[in-house]
Amino acid sequence: GVVKARNEVFATQNLTEKTHYIASTGIGGRHADPKILVMLDAFAIEGVKPGQIKYLYARTHLSPTYEYGVSFERGTAVDYEGRRLVLISGTASINNRGEIVHAGDVRRQTERMWENVEALLKEAGCSFEDLGHIIVYLRDMADYTVMKEMFDMRFPNVPRMITLAPVCRPGWLVEMECMAVRKL
User: Fold this and answer.
1) How far, rounded to the nearest angstrom, does the alpha carbon of residue 69 sit from its chain's CA centroid?
2) Are strands 160-164 and 131-138 parallel, antiparallel or unpaired?
3) What's the pLDDT at 33?
4) 95 near 61, Cβ under 8 Å?
5) What is the 3-state secondary structure (H, E, C) of the chain?
């Protein structure tokens, strides 16, 4: 339902694969008011021109989202005021054909997810060293200890939050989004 609702909202705003979408993570959540079906956060930078924006695809690792009916950008880099801001949308253990990789194995899914995020960051001229924060979405809280340990080892100094969330595809056990910044 989250994917369908996002697709419909984006269509009303003329956001397509040709006009580009926005960076987005589709997590099924609930508002306290049951009449509210969709919630979006927004981040805006005043005065940015199209030449300052680069869309990230990492096609060696990931497929364009529109190939399997989902509308969001994998990642977006924006250059402004002497820095590059990179927004990486919710990314999971997926290959460049849109298929889930390492079904049922949260450790291996996490490693593939990191590989995918790293490929997107690299396309933007960034690395994990540039991360400002990470949000981790975990399907099963029973995997929390493993996830925390893995992220503590790999990203000891990066602020992060691990939250229980029904990620988009049932086969995904973990998904992450992040933001990176580096000076130009």
Assistant:
1) 16
2) parallel
3) 78
4) yes
5) CHHHHHHHHHHHCCCCCCCCCCECCCECCCCCCCCCCCCCCCCCCCCCCHHHEEEECCCCCCCCHHHHCCCCECEEEEEECCEEEEEEEEECCECCCCCECCCCCHHHHHHHHHHHHHHHHHHCCCCHHHEEEEEEEECCHHHHHHHHHHHHHHCCCCCEEEEECCECCCCCCEEEEEEEEEEC
Rounded distance between C-alpha atoms, residue 155 and residue 118, angstroms? 13
Mean pLDDT value across the chain: 88
Give me the amino acid identity at 106. V
Q: What is the pLDDT of residues 13-51, one digit of tens each?
A: 777 777 776 666 656 555 667 787 666 667 778 899 989
For the full predicted model, state whether its pTM sits above 0.70: yes
Cβ count near 89 (within 10 Å): 24
In sequence order, the 6+-apart residues with CB closer than 8 A to the CB of 139 are 164, 165, 166, 167, 172, 173, 174
